Amino acid sequence: MATTPLSLEQLPQRQRATVAGIAWDRLSAPEGRRLRELGFDEGVGIEVLHRARIGGGPIACRIGRMTVALRRRVAGAIHVDPLTS
Amino acid sequence: MNPAPLVALVGNPNAGKSALFNALTGARQKVGNYPGVTVERHAGRMALPDGRPVELLDLPGTYSLEPSSPDERVTRDVVTGAQAGERLPDAIVVVVDASNLDNHLRFTLQLIALGLPVVVALNMYDLAERDGLKLDPQALARELGVPVVPTVAVRKRGIDDLKEALAELVTPGATALRPSDPVLHADIATLQRRARQIAMAATISETPVRRWTHMLDSVALHPVFGVLLLFVVLFVMFQAVFFAGAAPADAIAGGFDWLAGLVKQAMPDSILRSLITDGAIAGVGAVIKFLPQILIMFFFILVLEASGYMVRAAFLMDRIMASVGLSGRAFIPLLSSFACAVPGIMSTRTIEDEKDRLTTILIAPLMTCSARLPVYTLVIGAMIPNVRVLPFVGLQGLVMLGLYIMGVAGAFVVALVLRRTVTKGASSGFMMEMPKYQLPSVRDLAIGLWSRAEIFLKRAGTTIAFTTIVLWAMLSFPQVPKGSAVSQVNYSVAGRIANTIEPAFRPIGFNRDIVLALIPAMAAREVSVAALGTVYAIDTAGGDDETKMAQTLHKRWSLATALAFLIWFVFAPQCISTIAVTRRETNGWKWPAFMVGYLFLLAYIMAGITYWLAVFAGL
């Protein structure tokens, strides 16, 4: 367990993790709803697959069995627990 | 007589719903519109194994019953019986992606809770197996309490089983399942957990395999190679539209000319003959000529969409689009608009957020469409000296490139301003499911192309044909008296209008001839070339005459006027077809009127600035 909460934005690429919590108050209502609809929820497996490195572009992550693209600001509101194994 | 039972196909986006719809109905489908919204209504007929007909409805894909776009609202309203002009379906086919059960089952649970008879199509079953997933459809049916049929829509597998299952659901007297599970009415998080439990129960085994999609993505989404790949794709697409589209377009134009020639031979010279040849045939021909390019464009768009690459392109472009308040999704429609704004605007439907979509529609005409090329070519050829500014870099080519860049730059500035004023609103962000890569099926492509062609020809075609006839009338009436020295163009309504409004254009360096040419340019931009020809009493049909035309322009126009004219066309209000399709896509005259207004103002100001700068520079 990490002592300081790590956000999805900071999670190293290809490092498996689970969603520890989501700062819903940092997201707009539609954003929050869409995140839930896409399956973002505590305890779900997550992994950063690709980053558009240049100039803070979006990131692509695996959530459950799905691949989802989101912007860094939203990724910053998602806290993750890296799996140590 | 009772109408045929209505069955709705519902599911998450990317569940393969439309492919299933195509597999069930074949070509027997009809695309319409729901009243008051721009959402397309896809309906089709199919026969059950016992011969009974069923009306099938393909509803827009959505993640839940809480809508966040007009499309999703239609889906919710239809399945709850609240949609105007649509009856409550007799049964629902829930389409789920077999390899994405955790997520898709949540929506399935919500749909089952509605109490309508439900059958689940466990679609893309083959892809799930390819991904090392072994599922138990019976276990899934047990957990959900509804029949489950494994299907592979693109390969037409499981379709008969699905029809059998449907036949049982829509039998008169069959009692609808009344769900009692209290979990069904719980909030989204609880439903999601229940969905994951069910998915787990229905999964026999899962062998992790190296997924194709991930391998392809490490190239397609790569910061360097991905962008390169995107540019290669775009290059091929543009080459195809401009070069492969040109020959059939010329052939169609030639065919219409031939037809007009036949009529001219068969009929004595009269107003009626002129109406048929110069009005109707020329007008309809001007529209249909664009069909090959539009179809090629749509072919690429459909392939990119069905294969799953489109979302990757949006991913790569999101950063740039975000800087002007748009999302990556606006990229493809804007790209299409370089060929023609009409398919570009039609493809904005993939943008969920209404304001994003509207902004994209409003700036699409600023992308330099192919119809502006003849105008640019003529004026640049006539007025810009053919000199080299650098080895291999000609001044003429540079001016042409500059015009394209001005359009793009203008579009970005306009988007920035619009997003802060008329289409203000929270940035919708960019949050998209990235579907697995898939080989598109030929049948789905063919059906998609056919329906695009039909919409284009029917809707835009009628409007454009009508307006070109009006323009013809404006140029043909009143008729010049016999023996008069005044030309027909000058004597006509259009000529008189040009004379009246000419003073308004004098400050930006336009002479009366240009103003007159702008009127028919409303129908199609390249017509202005022909119109200038008429004004200068030159027939531009042959190559020699085009040189003559260029010489005439060179004599009569100053360079300042020519530059102002070019800049005018970068920003000018677009052709009637664009206005017509904007009206259709925004459902009213408000936004097309706004679009014409702001473009006109922009064109006027920019042409004026260009003219006066050029005059002061002594050109």
SS strand fraction of chain B: 5-15%
CATH-defined superfamily of the domain at 6-209 in chain B: P-loop containing nucleotide triphosphate hydrolases
- At the third CATH level, what is the topology name of the domain at 6-209 in chain B? Rossmann fold
- Described by its quaternary structure, the protein is heterodimer
Question: Number of helical segments of chain A?
Answer: 2
- Termini separation of chain A comes to 11 Å
**What is the name of the CATH class of chain A?**
Mainly Beta
pLDDT averaged over residues of chain A? 86
Q: Which secondary-structure class do the elements of chain A indicate?
A: alpha+beta
Overall 3D shape of chain B: elongated
CATH uppermost class of the domain at 6-209 in chain B: Alpha Beta
Helix content of chain A: 10-25%
Radius of gyration of chain B: 28 Å
CATH homologous superfamily descriptor of chain A: Ferrous iron transport protein A (FeoA)
Give the mean pLDDT of chain B: 83
